[in-house]
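Here we describe the complex-level prediction in full. Unlike the single-chain runs in Section 2.1, the two entities below were treated as one system.
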Amino acid sequence: DVKVTQSSRYLVKRTGEKVFLECVQDMDHENMFWYRQDPGLGLRLIYFSYDVKMKEKGDIPEGYSVSREKKERFSLILESASTNQTSMYLCASSGLAVGNEQFFGPGTRLTVL
Amino acid sequence: AQSVTQPDIHITVSEGASLELRCNYSYGATPYLFWYVQSPGQGLQLLLKYFSGDTLVQGIKGFEAEFKRSQSSFNLRKPSVHWSDAAEYFCAVGARNTDKLIFGTGTRLQVFP
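The structure predicted for the assembly as a whole is:
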């Protein structure tokens, strides 16, 4: 059974803290994605990685960075968390063929106080 | 550039009634089209996808969708809704030259007994 896991389901952090969200997939997928989900806005792409150490900015990269040192792991980093980064964060992965479906993790609900 | 519109933010139906969720896309060529479902507090699960061929696509949980090129639509249907179908539904479009998907803003389905 294919699986995308995220390190935390719920996370509470304080303004200014550095926050790491981890995502691991066991499908040997080349592509990995980080989305942010907010009510009424749907899913917005933060960053995309198509290979180890390779990344591409999505639609809303400001305030975020990513790291992909191993194929199966994709980390989202909030260098200095702010209250407007309170949101649901979803990680996804997909295979190399264009048009492949994306498989999603359960999400991390982050609250920044 | 691609875009996806889900005109209905919230739909309420009675259990056993039929369902149609609307999705319109904008893309110059034939797109890849997806419907995902998100149960409360969960990640997204693929219901069905269209790449080419037969324009009526069958998915899991008794859902189907029809690609209509002339209307730029990919509406999701189910003949008889169950209470467990209450969730948020996302339409997504992909292009043949990218691994990224563009998601609609979602439609929340409420089912009354």
